[in-house]
Structure formats: structure tokens, C-alpha cells
């Protein structure tokens, strides 16, 4: 567990370093720890070291961890592909959903979110390169989906998320993230409540911060390789 503590300390230091390097306000980039395939004990250790946002892809696994750790007051983000038959449990158990990519899913999440609870915070997932292997709506159709989400009473449109094509070259990483940032800024003018640009993972978060990310999703960098 010492490794998790050290990894978090290192990751937070790098975030602050890149915020300063690229003229970002200190504290403007949030850390989302991607905890899929990692144990509740590992999440508990991360929470002990100041992490409060956790991302999960697999619903059954996530629900068990959410239930066992509910006393910690963590914020849970669903970040994986969504099947319509999973929307009830997602809407019931999660605080955020970052992977809305079609109207049907948005509508079902809205139907299942209990009205006595705060609205479910959501991001529209954009597939920058229209890769068949990835979820997400095209850049061209993102505004239409945002409008749908924005009109649903039990959802709160907070931003966009994307997983660009992996690139090793820093400038190519920046170019991909710049494309998403430009779309985010365009959408923000029409949906002023949007404040979250979720982009950047363990291998490219420096470039993401350089291009304006407000939330980076780190799995390996926090927890190490998955079992």
C-alpha cells in the first residue's frame, strides 16, 4: 500500500508541475483514479491519501466496491460503455456518468435517477477519430446530444470526455486534445453550466493538461498494473 501512497504523491506533484508549466491555475486539474480491477482495500488506501474521485468500468464489480466503501463519502464515476439494461443500477449507484454517447442511454438514466436525489452529473463521450472499437458520438453530433441531455431534469450536463487514439509523440497528443478542447469551448458558449473537460490518462496526461483538461483519469499511475 506504500506504493499507492507514493504514486499518488508523485502524480499530484506532476499535475501541479504541469499546471505551472502550461499557465493553468493551481488546482484546476482534478485527479480521477481509475479503480477498475483494483480492490476495495486499494481504493481505501487511495482515499486515505486524499483521492475522492474514482472511476469504474464494470458495473457488477463497481457496485460491490461502492457498497463496501460507502462510509468513506467517495465520488463514483461510471466511465465505461453503457448497455441500456445497466442504466438502472448506474443511475442508482453513481454520482457521475462520463460515457453518455446516445440519446437512448441519456433518457434511461434520466428515468432511473431518483427525483429526491441530486441530478446525475454527466459528460458526453466524444469519439474524436470515429474509431469502431471505441464508444462515443462524433464531434459533429455532440451538440445535438448535449441539447438532449441538457433538457433532462434528472441529469446535469457538466462536460465532455474522450479517449483519443494513443500517440507516443507529445505534439500529436496535444493536437488530438486541442481538437476536443475547441469543441468543448464551442459547446460551453451554448451550455454555460459545462465545466468539465475529461481527457488525459496515465500515458498522455501532460499533453492533456497543456491543452486545458480539467480532469485526468489515472489508473496505472495510481494503482500500478491491474492483476
What does this structure look like?
42% of the residues lie in helices and 18% in strands. Helix 3 links the parallel strand 2 and strand 3. The protein is globular and about 45 Å long. An 8-stranded parallel beta sheet has the order 7-6-5-4-3-2-1-8. By secondary structure, it is of the alpha/beta class. Helix 4 (87-93) packs across helix 5. The chain has helices at 2-21, 40-48, 59-68, 87-93, 103-112, 142-150, 170-190, 205-210, 220-223; strands spanning 30-34, 53-56, 75-78, 96-100, 120-126, 155-162, 196-198, 215-218. The chain is built from 9 helices and 8 strands. The chain has a single domain (2-221), classed as Alpha-Beta Barrel (TIM Barrel). The two termini are 15 Å apart.
Which key features would you list for this structure?
227 residues, alpha/beta, TIM Barrel, 8-stranded parallel β-sheet, 9 helices, 42% helix
Short summary of the structure?
This protein has 227 residues and is of the alpha/beta class. The protein has nine helices and eight strands.
Helical residues, percent: 40-55%
Q: Which consecutive residue ranges, at least 5 long each, have pLDDT under 50?
A: none
**Major pleated sheet:** 8 strands, parallel
What is the string of helix and strand elements? HEHEHEHEHEHEHEHEH
Q: What is the radius of gyration?
A: 17 Å
Shape: globular
Please give the CATH architecture: Alpha-Beta Barrel
Number of alpha- plus pi-helical segments: 9
Strand order of the largest sheet: 7-6-5-4-3-2-1-8
Question: Distance between termini?
Answer: 15 Å
